[in-house]
UniProtKB/TrEMBL annotation:
It comes from Camelina sativa (False flax). Residues 9-45 form the F-box domain. PANTHER family: F-BOX/RNI SUPERFAMILY PROTEIN-RELATED, FBD DOMAIN-CONTAINING PROTEIN. It holds the Pfam family LRR_At5g56370. InterPro entries: F-box-like_dom_sf (IPR036047), F-box_AtFBL13-like (IPR053781), F-box_dom (IPR001810), FBD (IPR006566), FBL13/AtMIF1-like (IPR050232), LRR_dom_sf (IPR032675), LRR_FXL15/At3g58940/PEG3-like (IPR055411). It comes from the Eukaryota. The lineage of its organism: Eukaryota, Viridiplantae, Streptophyta, Embryophyta, Tracheophyta. This is F-box/FBD/LRR-repeat protein At5g53840-like.
Amino acid sequence: MAKKKICNKGLISDLPDHCLCHVLSFLSTKDAIRTSVLSKRWRSLWQLVLGLDLDSRDLGLGFSSSRFSNIDEFVKLVDKFFNLHIESWIHKLRLHIRTFGSVDYTSYLTKWIDAATTRRIQHIDLHCELLFKVAVKVPLSLYTSKTLVHLRLVRVNLVSADFVSLPCLKTLHLEMVRYTDETTLEKLISCSPVLEDLTIIKYTEDNGKVIQVRSQTLKRLDIDQWYDRQYGIVIDAPLLQFLRIIAYEIKNIKIINIGLTAKVDIDANVLSILDPNDLTIRSMIRDFLIGISRVRCLVTSYATTKDIFLYMKLEPLPQFCNLSELSVICSISNLEMLLNLLKSCPKLESLRLKLVDYEKGKKAEVMSSTVPPCLVSSLKFVKLLFGYGCGTKLKVAKYFLENSTILEKLTLKNDYKEENVKHIRQTLHEIPRCSSTCKVVLYS
């Protein structure tokens, strides 16, 4: 049989310029510049890429191994990019500006963003990491881009604007951003009619008192509020599919409307740090629980679970009639409260439970004799995880095995490698099961 001829065709360098530029567009500008040493063909190709992805620590114009030596060198390269594409559309602008002393970059950013927004820019990513807390302001042209699809801003100042219009913006990421008043953020959200993905990481004291998220198109919302009792969150997003909130010691979380099939991940505490006897606070917690009671999937942290349990001692929980998946962290001393929570979840199909022993010295409560309805009619999957110090794994597993009528699988994580795994398996095997088809999986 004759050997096949080796063909030299199909090399990447044989592709036309526009294809090679498309390949280079997936690289940072630093790496795209490095390809210029491959051959004469590649020497200037990086300059044709319709995007700039540059870190101020990247290589200088001389392609040496050193970083930019001063602000002028960095600015020169960015200016050169815009001069090369003075009549071209620009797809992407990503600038990570690290400190050059106490230089204010506002004038540079204004020039570059003004130029980008007139050239049909779709992606803007600005990260200013400066010393001396220099206030870098973004220009007003950013608020009226007709083509911008993705906007990420980190450590910049948003100036107030009377008019905001971002008709194509789908993704907005604001991290440690300062703005002069609450309406700036509200306008960015409400004046983006196709916005789908919003992330807000907020920590500065001079920002507004309330995060107002009102959108008829938003599908994903991620809020990291940090710690501050003077702040609040209001959410009105009927199409929301995913909501994640991290907000310790927050003043208020008000959920007016979210999607019925939404997944909600809450790590927050309100009631445990405020006066539970205050009827206003109690009403606020009630409204919050009602707001999340319609969701399909709920994930709660230890702090949130404590708040829910504390509320349950004061007033009855609303019914979580649509909830099919629940992931919860609670103390081993609150097993009875957990079962009371499950009684409010009549259609629960999957439970992921992590038991911890943060409240040292408190013993696990006796499991309730009244079985939650979901164990009889809907619960199919249970996953049990135990933190260090929890010695009740078999007791909890036994409860679910003996009382879950249609359970299909119980997964038990064993964190005690020194324990006799064979003995645990034998004990689990000997527990009578209410569901004859249930499988038990033990893993370390």
